[in-house]
Write a structure and sequence with these properties.
The complex is a heterodimer of chains A (about 1100) and B (about 240). Chain A is of the alpha+beta class and about 1100 residues long. Chain A contains 32 helices and 26 strands. Chain B has a five-stranded parallel β-sheet, sandwiched between helices. The longest helix of chain B is centred in the first third of the chain and has 32 residues, at about 1-35. The radius of gyration of chain B is 25 Å and the shape is globular. Classes of the chains: A alpha+beta (about 1100), B alpha/beta (about 240). The interface of A and B includes residues 748, 750, 787, 842 and 897 of A.
Amino acid sequence: MTQLFGIPINLLTTILLAITGGIMALVLVLAICNRVFFKIGVRNIPRRRMQMVLIVFALMLSTTLLSAVLATGDVLTTTVQSVAVYNLGNVDELIEGGHGPIGSYPDGVYYRLTRLVQRDPNIAAIAAALREQDLLVADENSRQVRSQVTALGIIPGSEQGFGGMIDPTTKRHLAIKSLQPNEVYLNQTLAQLLNAHTGDTLFLYSKRWPGKQYVLHVAGVVINGGLVGDSPFMLSQIQTFQAIEGNDDIISQVFISNRGGGGISGLDLSNRVTQTLNRFIPGDVHVIQVKQNGVQASQLAQDIFGRVFALFALFALAIGLLLIFLIFVLLAAERRAEMGMARAIGVQRSQLVLMFLFEGVVYDLAASFVGLLSGVALGALLVNLLGPILARFNFPLKLSFQPRSLVIAYCLGVIFTFCSVALASWLVSRMTVVEAMRDLPEQEKPSLTLGELGVSLLAGLRTTAAALLHRKWRAARHTLFALLPDTLLNIVRSLTLLGFLPLLAGYWLMQNGIQNTQIIPFSLGLSLIAIGAGLLLQATLRAVYNLAIRRGVAHERIHRTLSNGTQRVILTCVGLALLAYWALPFDTLAYFGLPRFQGGIEVFFVAGLMMVLGCVWALTLNASQLIRPLLAVCARLPGMFTLARLASAYPLHRRFRTAMSVIMFSLVVFAMTVMAIITNAMQNNYVSISEQTGGYDIQATAYFKSLPDQNAIRASLAQHGINPNVFSAIGERESSVVLVTQLSADAPRWSIYPVQIMSGGFLQGYGLHLVGRAQGFNSDSAVWQALQTHPNYALIDSSALPYNPNTLSSVYDPSSPSASAAGEPATPPNFPPPYTYSVSGIYQGDTTFPATPIWVTGINTRQANKYTIIGIVDNSDSAHFGLYVPQSAYSASSIDLNIPDFLPTTDAYFSQQTYYFKVAPGQDAHALALALGSAYLDNGLETTVLVDAIWQVRGPRILLSDVLLGVVAMTLLLGVAALAITGTRAVIERRQQIGMLRALGCSRRLIQGAFLLESFLIGAAGSILGIVLGLILARNVFAANFFEQFNTGLTFSVPWNQLGLIVLVALAASFLGAILPAWQAGKIAPAEALRYA
Amino acid sequence: MRHIQRGEHVFGSQLLLLCCLLPLLIGCSAMSSGQPAALTVQHAPQSAYTYVAIGASDTFGIGTDDPLTESWPADLASQLGSTIKNVRLVNLGIPGIDVDKAIHVELPVALDAHPALVTIWLAVNDLADNVPLPTYAQDLDLLIGSLQAENPQVRIAVANVPDLAFVPHFQSVKPQVLAAQVAAYNQQIATIVQRHHVLLVDLYQRWQELATHPEYISDDGFHPSTLGYEQIANIFYQVLTETQ
C-alpha cells in the first residue's frame, strides 16, 4: 500500500506518530498532575482480572489484526518489486540503440565507458554483449525444439562483475573465456525446456538467417541470474555471434550493475547512474533504466491486487477499531453504577473521565505490544505457507516488514483507544447520580433551548472573565475547563439534534464533492443532509405538538404517543434512505444529470460501512416491532415465552449497546462476504489452472513443416511410436488475420481481427469457454454441435464486444492504470485499435444475442465469405482473442493483400499451426511432451506443458491471490475471536442482573438459555445483515465493472459454501463465547451476584 | 363417390399425420444439422438510402488522420445527407486491392448490402501493378455487370484515373509513358461506363487543380490528403447531382 484514503503512507505515518506522541505526553502530564486518580483508575486492573484479561485480549486482537494486515501489505509490495527485478538478474541499466536489425554499435562505446566510469562509486560493474533474439533452437540429442530463445555473445571477463556463471550442481564458477567459438552455456530455464545436457549439439535458426543453420555445442548449464534472468538464454563468447553477423567489433548491449548487490537495492541510484552514463555515450544509443521500469510496470500490472488489498485492509481496520470502541463502551456502561457512587461522594466529572482514561491507556500499552508481535508472527506464518507456491515458479522471496507498518498499527491502536475511552467515559459521566447508582436508564431531561444555551454561554464567559480579573484561579479553571466546554458541547449537541449542523456539514461536503467530482464527499454530504432533514422534521413536529398542547388543542398523552411514533417513522426512513442510497450502483447518479464522479476502491468500504450503519439504525429503532412475531410464536410454546421474553429484554432495553454488537457482528460477516466473493473470483480466474488451460495439457507448435491434419494425426502418432490413446482429445488451431465487416453495423467498413481456425477437440468444446450464445441455442453443446455441422457458423471472443453505450462503462478512477498498462490488453496485442474489429449490436455481458452475420476475407482466403456469429468465447484472460471458425470453412489459397498500415505490427498471428493435446488420466504430461517433440523433430515441433507455462506467466498473480486469501482467513480468525469476546463480555458484565433474576426465582437453566438465545438472536441478525449487505456491495463492485478497467476478467459468482461456513463459524464463535459465562452465570448464588459491584 | 370419400379420408388422415409430424421432422432436421429451431438474426438498421463505396486505399481513407471520418466516401455520404434522408454508408475500400480481387471480396458484400448507390474507384492500383489493360477492362466490366444483374435499379458511378503526373509517387515514371497509361485506362473505363449506361466521374478532367494544389496529396506522396478527399467527394457529388 502506498496510500490510504488518498494520503501517502509516509505522510500518514508522520501524522499518526505526532498524534500518538501528543496523546502520550498529555496522558503523562495528566497522570503526574492527578496522581491520586491515576492510582484509583489503575487499581481496577488487578481487582477485575477476568475483565482485564478480556479487554487486553480484545485490544491485542485489534492490534494483531492491524499489524498483520499491514505486514501482509509489505509482503505484497516486496513480492511485486522482487518479481519484477528477478528476471533482470543483476542488471540495473542497459545501453541500447545503435543501428540495423539488432541495434548494433561499436564495442568502443563499452571500452570507453569502462575507462571513464570505473571509479564511479555508484556503479558496481559493466559488461557488454551482442544479443540475438527470437532464435529457434533444436537439440539433436534430446530431440527437442524451443522458440523465442535469446543468445548473448558476451565480451569475455565482463560477466564476472555480475556474479559470473555458476554451475548449479557443482556450484563451480564457469567463465565465458573458457568457451570455444562453437560452444555455449545454457541457463537453467533453457536447459530444462530443451531437456539439454552438457555435450549436446544444438542447431540455431532465425528468421533473419533464412535457409541457414548454425551448429553449437552445450559446454555447460549455469544458474539463472547474473546477466540473465529466468527467460530461456544461451551464453557464448561475443566472437561467436559477431562471426554470424559478419562484423567483429560490434555489440548491441552494455549492462550496468549499480552498487548495492542486486535485487531492488540499487534502484535508488538509477537516476544518478543514468545521468553519469548519458555524459559519456554517443547520440545513437541511450540508457534504459530496466529495473526501475520493470518495477513500475510490475506495480501497474499488479495494481489490482494493491487496490483489493487496500479494501480488505480498510475492512480489517474497521473491525479492529470497532472492537476497541465496543470494548470501552461496554466497560463504561458497566462502570456506570460505580461512577455514580464516586460522583455521590464528591468526585468531579472530569476526574471520572481521567480515571477511566488512565485505566484504558494502561490496557492499551500492555496489549498493543503483544498484538504487534503476534501480527508479525501471523505475517511470517503466511509467507511460510506461501513457500510451495513460490517454489513452483522458482522465485525466492524473503520475509520483510517495514517498521513503518508496525508504527502505523501501533499508533492507530493507541489513538483509537484514547478516543474511544475519552468518548465512552464522557458519555457515561453525563449521568444522574441516583439513576446511575441504581443502574436505571437516564430519564429524558428537558433540554435547554438554543436561546437559553446562548445566555448560559454568555454567562459562562462573563463569569470566566470576572474570575480571571479577580484572580480567582480555581473558579476560572472550573468555568474555563468544565462549564464553558460543557455549554459549547450542549450547543453543538442541540444544533445537531435540530438538524442544522448535519445540514450545513452535508451541504459543504456535497459542494466539495461536486466541485472536485469526488464521490465520497458528495455521498457523505448527501447522507448528512438526509440525517439533518430527518432531525429537522422531527424537531419541527415536536415544536408543533408542543404548541398544540400549550394551546390546549392536543392532550399530552396523545402528543407523547404520536411524537414517539412519528420520530420512529422519520428516523427509520432516514436509516433506510442511507441504506438505499449506498446500496445503489456506483454510477447511478450520472443517470440523473449529475457529473460523473471519481472514486477509488475506498468508496466501496465507505458504502459498506454506511449500509451497515443505516440498516442497523433502522432495525434498532424498530426492534420492538420486529421481535413481536418471535414473542407471538413463542407464546404458543410452553416455557419458551419466558425464555424469549428474557432473551429479548436486555437487547430492547439497551439499544445502543445491542446496536453496537449487531454492527460488530454484521461488519465481520459483511467484510468476510465481500472478501470471499472477490477472492473466490480471483481464485477461479488465476489459481484454477484447468480453467486457464481449457482442459488441454500440452501445446505443440510446428515451426518447420505442418503436422498431419486432424483426421490423420492419430495414425501419424502411432507411426511415430506414440500410442494415440494416451491422449483423450486432440485439437488443432491455426492463427491468421482476417478482414471483417458487419453489414448490420451503423457504418460498416473492413477492419482486421485475428482468426483461429479450429478443428478436432476445439469443435467439441475443449479449450474454449462460452459466455454467450445466439438466441435459439438452448445450450453450449447445441452451439458446438452447430459448429461441427455448419461451416459458416463462427464464434468470437468477448473482447470484441463493446460496452453498451446506454450503460456507463466502469468506475471512473483516474488513478488506476489502463488495462494495457496493467498487462491485460483489451484488444489483440499489436493490432492498431482504430482498424481492429469490434462487434456491433452485442455488448459486454450479453449472454444471449441475435445471431450476427459478418463478411470475412483474409490473407489466406481468396474471397469474402459470410459467417454467422453464434457464440461468444470467454477471453477474460486475454489469451483467447479471435474469430473462431471451423477448419472446414477455410480455404488455404492466398491473395496477399499489401496493406502494411492496416495489419498488426507482428507476424505472430500468421499461419501458426498449433496442436493441443489432452492427456488421458494417469499419463505424465511432461514425458508425453518430450516424446511428442522428439517424434516430430523434423517438423520443428515445440511442445509446452500448459501448466508450466501458466505458472511462469501467472505465478505472481497466483501468489498474490493466495496472499489475499490468507488475509481473508486471518481477518476471519481474528473477527471471530472478536465476536467471541463480545459474547463473553455481554454476559460477565451483567452479573448483578443475573443475581437479581435468580433472586426473583428464575432457574439456572432459564438464565443460561436466555443468554444463549440472546447471543443467537444478535448473531443471527448480524449474520443476515452481513450476508445480504455484503452480497449487495460485492454485486455493486462487479456491476460497476471496477475490475473491468483492469481487464482482469474477474466475474461475480457467489461462493455459497464459503458464505455458509463464514456464518456458521461466526455464530459458533459467538455462541461459544457466551456459553461458558452463561453456564457460570447460572451457577452464581443470588446473594453473591447482588453483592458484587 | 365412396372411393372418393375414402380417398379424401385417407388424404385427410395423411395430411393430419403430416401436420403432426412436420414440426417433429423439422425439429429432428434442425437437431441433426445443429440448426436451432428459431435462430434470430441481427439485421441492418433501417435505412432509406444505402450507399456502397467499392474501392481501394483511397476509398478506405489512407492519407488522412482519421480514415473513418475523413475518407472521400464519408465526405460524399455527408453531402448526400443534405438532400437525401437517412443515408447509410457501407465503405468497402480495402488498401492495396485491385479490380480482380474486389470482384471476389467486395462485390459479394456490396450485393448483400442491397445498395441504392454504388461508387467504384478502382484503377490506380491496377495501373501501378501493371495489370494488362484487357484484363482490367474485363474485370471492371464483370464487376459493373454483376452489380446491375443483381440489382437493376442501382445507381453506379465509376471514377477514372486522375492526372498522376502531379502525384509525387509517380515522378519516377517517364511523363509520356505515364500519360499514355492513364489515357489508355481512362479510355477503357469510359467505354465500359458507356456500355453499362452508368455514370462516369471524370477525375482526370475535373481534378486538374491538383496541379496547383500539392496539399491535396498526403505526406506519403501517393494518397490524397484530407483536403484532397474533400475535393474528390465534391466532384462525385457534382456528377451525381448533375445527372439526377
